[in-house]
Amino acid sequence: QVQLAESGGGLVQTGGSLNLSCASSGRPFSDYNMGWFRQVSGQEREFVAAISWEAATTYYADSVKGRFTISRDNTNNMGYLRMNSLKPEDTAVYYCAAKYYRDRDFKGKYDYWGQGTQVTVSS
């Protein structure tokens, strides 16, 4: 199985930017579609963005479209989420997730998850 580990979260002011990274190991990352989700304590997990295994297609939640950019580097088994123009409502724990490339329901269930990284946007 593939293991995932997020990093790059932190505290940032409204309007600032952060880069999140997702390091994968155990299997070639090119075998998997990848997504980013976020969760506020007491609320449901929310889809943020997804990218296909070959990076041919990307998907974004309306709330982040135009501000966030998902990307990947299969050579280095890495996934990324660039977050610009951050707002207080972006505050959440962000999770990297993966599913086998044949599963192209990009907003649906993912099989592998990282531990999460906290993003806090101050007002």
Detailed description of the structure:
- With 123 residues, the chain is an all-beta fold.
- Helices cover 0% and strands 51% of the residues.
- Strands 2, 4, 5, 6, 9, 10 and 11 form a 7-stranded mixed sheet that branches. A 4-stranded antiparallel sheet has the order 1-3-8-7, with no helix packed on it.
- It starts with a strand and ends with a strand.
- The model has no long low-confidence stretch (mean pLDDT 97).
Poorly predicted regions: none
Count the helices. How many? Answer: 0
Strand tally is 11
**Global morphology:** globular
- N-to-C span: 40 Å
Secondary-structure class = mainly beta
| Mean pLDDT rating | 97
Descriptive keywords:
single chain; 123 residues; 7-stranded mixed β-sheet; 4-stranded antiparallel β-sheet; 51% strand; 11 strands; mainly beta
Topology:
Layout lengths: L2 E5 L2 E4 L4 E8 L6 E8 L6 E6 L6 E3 L7 E6 L4 E6 L8 E9 L11 E2 L3 E6 L1
Parallel strand pairs: 2-11
Antiparallel strand pairs: 1-3, 3-8, 4-5, 4-9, 5-6, 7-8, 9-10, 9-11
Short characterization:
The N and C termini lie far apart (40 Å). The chain has strands at 3-7, 10-13, 18-25, 32-39, 46-51, 58-60, 68-73, 78-83, 92-100, 112-113, 117-122.
